[in-house]
UniProtKB/TrEMBL annotation:
PANTHER family recorded: 1-PHOSPHOFRUCTOKINASE (PTHR46566:SF5), 1-PHOSPHOFRUCTOKINASE-RELATED (PTHR46566)
EC number(s) per entry: 2.7.1.56
SUPFAM superfamilies per the UniProt record, alphabetical: Ribokinase-like
Signal peptide coordinates: none
Species per Swiss-Prot/TrEMBL record: Streptomyces finlayi
Protein name from the UniProt record: 1-phosphofructokinase
Lineage: Bacteria, Bacillati, Actinomycetota, Actinomycetes, Kitasatosporales
Gene responsible for this protein: pfkB
Entry's family note: Belongs to the carbohydrate kinase PfkB family.
GO biological process, alphabetically ordered: carbohydrate catabolic process; small molecule metabolic process
InterPro entries: 1-PFruKinase, PfkB_dom, Ribokinase-like, Tagatose/fructose_Pkinase
Amino acid sequence: MILTVTPNPSLDRTYELRDLTRGAVLRATADRVDPGGKGINVSRAVAAAGHRTVAVAPLGGPEGALLARLLGEHGIEAAGVRITGSTRVNITLVEADGTLTKVNATGPEITESEAETLLETVRTWSSDADWIACCGSLPRGLPPEWYAELVARSHGAGARIALDSSGAALIAALRERPDVIKPNVEELSEAVGRPLATVGDAVKAAEVLRGRGAQAVLASLGADGQLLVDGSGTFFGSARVETVRSNVGAGDASLAGFLAAGGAGRPALAAAVAHGAAAVQLPGSVMPTPADIDLSSVVTTTDIPLDRVLTEPAP
């Protein structure tokens, strides 16, 4: 079972438009609402792959009630923590040419007692979990050290932790030695405080974060592929992608694939790449099913293309 923790979940409403014109009244050609937040996306991908998953998240107001119902419809057990604020609603506008415009709400403020209840809920479920995936930004009310406390308590209970966050929250958590962290290029660059222009730059940055406490680094390089840097070495994975429809949630699908495949080594990296490649070919934040996964398109290697210039370098 994979337990996910999403401190700032959302309802994600996606509207498809012919084009986006400022100041105009627009009519959507299609729309959908999905349970959102990075950890919840991981749970969605895990459930879509046929594995058991439990999602811990603060839920408030009618939006929180709808989110809980949608989780059940996706085959996800909801371990909701009731809060006084209302769960946020995020908006994604998708134009016909694939251009995405996102409006993310700030979300509710979490009280001290609600924050403690979240931690205790994770502890309660941790004994049943093969992995705990802690994902996303921290809402108002939670200090940057909150993830560090969660990692420490979870390790104390014998659980393995995957952390997908950024900024101060990521840096603070490194001292508690999360089992794997999953930054993208921009987050990797921010964490080490320098630009990343090549795959080799990304490898060096991942090694820095391992030196600061991360036991493994699964780094997404966007269209260029993914890196896994751990105690056994450095691995690079990539896959063919015919058409990109949406990259929303692709990183979360990758993490789900990685954890579901054991969370270590080249086979897990291959699963991560395959899940990410499948996700970008699906609309909105739809998560891939086993029928969408094509492991034959994935290549993993220890021959790292260090001099390859990143398609989307981090300034």
